[in-house]
Amino acid sequence: MPIPPSLASTLLHQIDQDQALIPGLPNDVAALILSFLPYSHHCRLKPTCKPWYIFLSSKTLHSLRRHHRRRSLSHLLCVFPEDPHISSPFLFDPQHLAWRPLPPLPCNPHEYGLCNFTSVSLGPHIYVLGGSLFDTRSFPLDRPSPSSSAFRYNFLTSSWDRLAPMLSPRGSFACAAIPSADQIIVAGGGSRHTLFRAAGSRICSVERYDVERDEWEALDGLPRFRAGCVGFAVREGGEEREFWVMGGYGDSRTVSGVFPVDEYYKDALVMELKGNGGGKWRELGDMWGAGETPRFGKIVMVEDEDGGSPPAIFMLDDNDILRYDMASNRWQKECSVPRRAPCKSSYGLVVLNEELHVMTIVNGIDSTETRRSRQQKRAGTLFMQIYHPRKKTWRCLVTKPPFRQPLDFSTTVMCPIQL
């Protein structure tokens, strides 16, 4: 398939014709060949020669890969095991079981313990927004504060950029990217921290970030305070039409007048997306029928990349996978995870290449490997059970994560990205 003229001209401008990408081939043909290399191998191939380094670091490469979307894009997962200011996130390629470290976020000496932030991908970038943290300049010191910070990792320059802060600081909030408008929407949140489950504030404000202008704009707020919620955009005709906010908690109550407990919502909220701003919020009723026990597991959405069918929304609760039916506004059991998680461990749930990846850490010994480092023993083995919703089939993958300690999926932040 020929390269579009605009991409070819960009490539010829960046690379001198005397420095061929592949000797004996025109640069546009060689660029097409190199664009099909898995993204996880690029960092090892860049030092091959100067033309390869220029091409593999250029916008032309990403444009070519997106032009041949179905065949060349790598479905990757960015994993933030803990505070990204002090611990490097890693990029994981499940197809080739390859891990690649990314640089940590720019550090602020006054802030530490960042958690409950949200990470979302848009184009060749990953955004890290908000979160809850401790600030040595605040009082009292033992209580978390919400953050309004925003960072963006640029895969072209392999560096982090500090963006305009959000209008309202927040952590544990709903977030969704709007690729058709090059925007990001955030809703709700508060100052909840992993050490203080029911403490902290809740907010109802909603904002939209414009990538081109690097500006945040306030939209109509949620009808009620809501934190710990999940957000996603529903597409129709190739464009995002609605922004959904599901799950989360509002007020808190106490058990026996001592132990604080969150009051979880059983409904969902929908905002119609418009070109000049967001619309009004539409409230959906209770998603659980009479006599059903509400479940509050991890929620993800699986989109049909061809646009031929509506998105599917799934929830992982304990060992059961539930599917949400938009027509009836009800959750129905889809299937169960084949292998249950070990005792006192947690599941991680993400969507990659239209498949559900249910992840957990196991500590079984691999008999084929006689020499294992202490780091691998401490980190355990990442076991992924992968479910295909349309085929209704399961498969599994096993890999050794490069972390110093086992992943805690109750606090680990994960962000799918296509490059």
Automatic annotation (TrEMBL):
<dbReference type="InterPro" id="IPR006652">
    <property type="entry name" value="Kelch_1"/>
</dbReference>
<dbReference type="InterPro" id="IPR015915">
    <property type="entry name" value="Kelch-typ_b-propeller"/>
</dbReference>
<feature type="domain" description="F-box">
    <location>
        <begin position="23"/>
        <end position="62"/>
    </location>
</feature>
<dbReference type="Pfam" id="PF00646">
    <property type="entry name" value="F-box"/>
</dbReference>
<dbReference type="Pfam" id="PF01344">
    <property type="entry name" value="Kelch_1"/>
</dbReference>
<dbReference type="InterPro" id="IPR036047">
    <property type="entry name" value="F-box-like_dom_sf"/>
</dbReference>
<protein>
    <recommendedName>
        <fullName>F-box domain-containing protein</fullName>
    </recommendedName>
</protein>
<dbReference type="InterPro" id="IPR001810">
    <property type="entry name" value="F-box_dom"/>
</dbReference>
